[in-house]
C-alpha cells in the first residue's frame, strides 16, 4: 500500500515522497539484503527517483538515478549530514572517521588527511606494496575451486598491517590475530539486528573489538610519532595542512580504525570481482596479462601501473558491476527537498550508486561485462557526471580513490604474472549484501601456476 513520508508545508510547490511501510521494527531490511537491486528497481518503477521505505525503525528515502544522487551528494544547501547518516549504521565502531564528520570539522580533517594521499606518497606506497604482495602470494596454493575472495581478504588484511601500520614490531602473531578479529568484529557489528551490548551478540563483539583496536593503535603511537616512516600510521602522525594544522593522538586512532575499514573490504571485493570476470572472459585476461608482461617487472612503479590501460578498463567495469559501497547514508538536518519532493528534518537518505550503475538508460546492456565501454572511443561514463560513482561525489568523495587504484592494480598485476585462472561463464556470484557486498561462497576459481610460461621467466 502506498503511503507518503510527510505532507509538504501548506502552499509549497513540493510533492510528498511516496513509498511503502514495511514490517514493524525491521522495515525493508530483509528485502534489501536479499536483492538490493530488485528492491531499488521496484521503487524506481513504482515511484521514481525519490521514494520512502523503513529500516530498523527509521524513515528513509531511497535516492535513485544520477540526478537525484548528484543533488544529495553535492548537498548545496548543506541540508544533509554524513555523521548523522552513517552513525545510524556504523557510529559506535567507526566514530571520528573522516566520512562521519561534517562541515568545518570535516573540512579541517580532510585538509590534513589529503596530505597523506599525494602522488609522491602513493609512489612510496607502491614501492612498499610490491614485495609485500609477492611474499603473501608465495603462500597461495593453486587448485580447482580455489576460494579467491577468502584468500584475497587475508592478503589485503595482511598487506594493511605492513602498509597502513608499518608492521607491528611488539606484537606476537597470536596478538595480531586478535587485532584482525577485533577489526572484523567491528565491521560485522554494523549490520547487527540486535543493537544493544547484549553478551554473545555481534554488537557486543563490535564494541569489544573497538576497544582492542584503540589499545593497539595507542600502544604504537609514540613510536610512530617519534620517527617518520612511509606507512600511513606514521604519515598521519606527521602530516599537517597548508595552514599548519595537525592531528591529535585521539584523532589519529579514530582515523586509523576508520581507514582500515574504508580500504579493506572495498578493495577486496573489487579484486575478487575482477578475478571473477577475468576468469570468465579469457580474452580480457590474456589482454591484461600481455600488458603486464610487457612491463617486464613484478615490481611496477606508479607510472607503470598507469600504463596498464586494459586493467584500468576492467577495474572500472568491475566497480560498475559490483559497487563496493552500494548505498551511501545521509540524514536531513532540517526540512529540505530533493528533486521537488519534500523531505522533513530527521529523514535518513540512502543514495544508491549501485542502482545508477545498472540503469539501461545510461549503460547499454548493463549486466554485460564490457570494459570497452570506458575506452576513449565510447566513454559511456561521460553520459552523466554521476553515471559512474563508485567513489561517491561531493565533499565526501573517496579520499583513497587513487590509493585503491594502485593497490588493486598492483595485486592483479602480480596475479596475472603468476597465475592463470578460469571461472565458469555461467557462474553468478552469490553476493551477500548484509554489509558491503561479498561472495558468500568465497568465490571459487580454477587457479593454475603459470611457471611453465617462458614469458614469466622474464619477470
Ligand atoms: C575500491 C575501493 C574503494 C571504494 C569503492 C571506496 C568508496 C568510497 C565511497 C563511496 C566513499 C564516500 C562515502 C560517502 O560519501 O558517504 C568513500 C569515502 C572515503 N574513502 Fe573510500 N573507497 C575505496 C577505497 C578506499 C581506500 C583504499 C581508502 C584509504 C586508504 C579510502 C578512504 C576513504 C576515506 C578517508 C573516505 C571519506 C572521505 C570523506 O568523507 O571526506 N577508501 N570511499
Give an overview of the whole structure.
Helix content is 49%, strand content 12%. With 459 residues, the chain is of the alpha+beta class. It has a single domain, classed as Cytochrome p450, CATH 1.10.630.10. The model is unreliable at 453-459 (pLDDT under 50). It binds protoporphyrin IX containing FE. Residues 82, 98-99, 110, 259, 262-263, 266-267, 270, 324-325, 328, 390-392, 396, 398-400, 403-404 line the site of protoporphyrin IX containing FE.
Give short descriptive properties of this protein.
alpha+beta, Cytochrome p450, five-stranded mixed sheet, 17 helices, 12% strand, disordered C terminus
List the helices and strands and how they pair.
Layout: E1 2-4, E2 15-16, E3 18-20, H1 29-34, H2 36-47, E4 50-55, E5 58-63, H3 66-74, E6 80-81, H4 82-94, H5 103-113, H6 119-137, E7 146-147, H7 148-163, H8 173-189, H9 202-226, H10 232-238, H11 249-280, H12 282-295, H13 302-306, H14 309-321, E8 328-332, E9 336-338, E10 341-343, E11 348-351, H15 353-356, H16 401-418, E12 419-422, E13 431-432, E14 438-439, E15 444-449, H17 454-458
Parallel strand pairs: 2-10, 5-11
Antiparallel strand pairs: 1-3, 4-5, 6-8, 7-15, 8-11, 9-10, 12-15, 13-14
Helix pairs in contact: 6-7, 6-16, 7-11, 8-9, 9-11, 11-14, 11-16, 12-14, 12-16
Protoporphyrin IX containing FE is lined by residues 82, 98-99, 110, 259, 262-263, 266-267, 270, 324-325, 328, 390-392, 396, 398-400, 403-404.
